[in-house]
Amino acid sequence: MNHSISLTVNGARRDFVLDDPRVTLLDLLRERLHLTGTKKGCDRGQCGACTILVDGKRINSCLALAISHDGADILTIEGVARGDQLHPVQAAFIAHDGFQCGFCTPGQIMSAIGMMQEAQAGNDPERVRECMSGNLCRCGAYAGIVDAVLEAQAGMDESNQRRSA
Amino acid sequence: MPELNLSSAPAHLRHGSNIGQPLTRRDGVLKVKGQATYAADNHPPGMLFAVMAVSTIARGRVTSLDVAAAKRHPGVVDVMTPDHKPELAIDPEIKTNPFVFRMEVLQSNEVRYANQPIAVVIAETLEAATEGAALLAPRYETLPPLVGLDAGESFVPPVVGVGNPTENHRGDVEAALASAEKQIDATYETPPQYHNAMEPHAIVAAWEGDRLQVDMPTQGLMLSLARIAELFGIAHDKIHIRSPFLGGGFGSKGLMSGPPTLGIMAAKLVGKPVKLVLRREQMYGPVGHRAPTRQRLRIGTDGEGRLAALDHHARTVSSTFDDFYEPAADASHTLYAAPAIRTSHDAVRVNTGTPLFMRAPGEATGSIALESAIDEMAWACGIDPLAFRLKNYAEVEPITGKPFSSKALRACYEQGAARFGWAKRPLQPRQMRDDSGLLVGWGMGTATFPALMFQAEARAVLRRDGTGAMEIGAHDMGQGAWTALAQIAADELGLDIDNVEFKAGTSDLPDAGIAGGSAHTATAGAAIHSAGAAVIAKLADLATGDERSPLFGAGNAGVIARDGRLIRRDDESRSESYAEILARAGVAEVEARGTGAPNPAAMEEYAMHAHGAVFAEVKVDPELGQVRVTRMVGAFAAGRIVNPRMVQSQLFGGMIWGMSFALHEEAITDRRSGRIMNANLGEYHIPVNADVPPLDVITVEEHDPHVNALGIKGVGEIGITGSAGAVANAVWHATGVRVRRFPIRIEELLTQR
């Protein structure tokens, strides 16, 4: 049975017919829309490599069925930068060497952006470590990840202050 | 292009400012934008999806598969089984060289371990292939599995690791132990561990007639290519492998294994490109792991705490059908100056996938046992663990008596201890508490890893437009080859790094050797070094032999290559740009090849190792036994540091693996079924961000003129060694409980008290 669904992916509306209700958001993005920046590390919500934002919230896209997200607004790693201009979190990951192999990186960055929007860690490194613990990194780039998130957070706080001043 | 003649004794230098700089990763933008292409990100037109069905028993035989049910499922195209598959050109059980391992590619119905591939379903969608694999509903004839370190009669394997002797000795260990003033005799156990790179093993295979295009993460492009050629009976030049990025390897992607071979077979069977990606749980079987060990250490000292004897025996396991033996006891060869040393190994066979190299194979397992035992011996002598290690500092390699090519371990001890504040450590355990009443402990360990070299070749090009290229089939699994090797290339070519086209990661480039043994930067770097020297020499010949060049006649004096110019060595006012030289000579480019290889004469004369010292603090809840590492300091001396930013990241990663070894990682095998019960990332624990405390790395300056032309020792694996023992020793110092089975469990801290 076919199901028509529409999603907004990285700002663009995508309408399509889903021929299979078992398709996860992750497999839809990777295998059907060919947005392969989002990674599959475990396919059961344990590693965080597939983290994307759905309606502004970070989720494990491997645990989400596409069919149950009709109408959702999805942001993936491909939609984070503006052309050549990197998102502050992306730039900070490079500056602080917040990755080695890079496979968990799209998930880490999406998780960091989601966490900053949740405003639950602020500039507390302990909270950042805790709130980023759903994203595994086997290379062990955690120190750089925390430093990158804190720097991006500081930059965001500064620009918010400027805006409100 | 005119014929170029090389002068007989070029004495040309290349100068650069790239090596030693903390450049950010050159592949960083691709990685943070999700644009770095890993194997499973490829999707050639017409591609189908393959999913493996794997055995749920560990020993026996598949008696039936419901192929019809799988085929009836919409979208399923074909089911590959032992009865229905393309024939291979060679029996996959034949070992044609020591780097060939036996693999399961549906050659029979026999099951040798759990999670062994038993069929492959190929379908139009991933969902259909996954469902099809589930519908196969295999039935088995099951035999009792062999499980654990006491599974059967033990035997002494012919070699351990890659060709290491099973036994080594120097002096009379038994006599020295018998007459020692103080002795310890302790047995440690380490569990099976799985590499668990974040990227599951994957392949996209596409046949075009008799040509084969492969996207696959590999740490050994040419080894993989040769194995594919052998298995499928095709010439090397018909195969092209792309592996620009690996999502981690840690040894598990070094050699061709069964699953990617099945992907190539599936593509051949259906005549279309096929993608096969392992599910996480399928990585606990056919793609290698670190074998468990049981290690007995007997150490004796004289009355002053000087080592008299060190006896290290390791029991390990291999599979029932192939041989890889974790060389754990070899860790005792290099660190401590005992006049009598013996190391030995034995093994049993169990129903497991064949063990393999996993980040610091032998060194990691051996190190945690040795460093724990040295700590126990120091305590028995009533001596501070650092003072004990300094008292027994090896001025020459203990097992061979050879001098070290370089060894800045004393400086590592001093700088690490000073940064950590080790001097304030109480000798007795269970003496320190923090403000909230948690027990605090400080422990240390010595790190060491051999400085190895393999074989590699590189091709260098200088072009008339002032740019250059360096080509080498190197592998970046996260260590930073795209950046560090490009830095070396830029300096060797005397060019700005932005003017160097650095090509790596595909099998049509010169062989870079395997990315393993912490030797890739040294090996590939040495090849780049010599290719750079050769191409500069060719360019210099064009200039110094041409009377129109300001460098005419400088052949004997030599030139310096710097910033895209050749400069007369004895008169820096005379120089000429590469572009000018090539333009006048009427050639578009000059090219040359160079090789990197170990120096047998230097290896004969010197023992070559990197060293380090790791200090760890843990806090332990006295009621609950919960252990948290709260800080770690590692000081490492590993020869020349090409990129300090990436070296720090590598060492951090290694230290986290060490901490994980001591406290987290373990694959648990069910004794009745032989299945791994925690084959997933939720229950096989690796450290998450919140587990990892602030880490501090010091790189101690070390100049080594013997290891290779660039003086590089490698940093990929040494961080694990020393770190695991440091954490374990800190747990003892916090609690007074010596746990000898790793990872250290809460229940042992609570029940041993």
Number of helices of chain A: 5
| Sheet with most strands: strand arrangement of chain A | 2-1-5-3-4
Number of helices of chain B: 16
Strand arrangement in the largest pleated sheet of chain B: 4-6-2-15-12-13-14
Radius of gyration of chain B: 28 Å
Morphology call of chain A:
globular
Poorly predicted runs of chain B: 1-10
The proportion of residues forming helix of chain A, as a percent range, comes to 25-40%
Which sequence of SSEs, written as H and E, runs from N to C of chain A?
A: EEHEEEHHHH
Give the helix level of chain B as a range of percent.
10-25%
Are there runs of chain A of 5+ residues with pLDDT below 50, and where?
none
Radius of gyration of chain A (CA) equals 16 Å
Q: Tell me how many strands of chain B there are.
A: 30
Secondary-structure class of chain A:
alpha+beta
**Strand percentage of chain B:** 15-25%
Q: Biggest interface: chains and residue counts?
A: A-B, 60 and 63 residues
Biggest sheet of chain A, in brief?
Answer: 5 strands, mixed
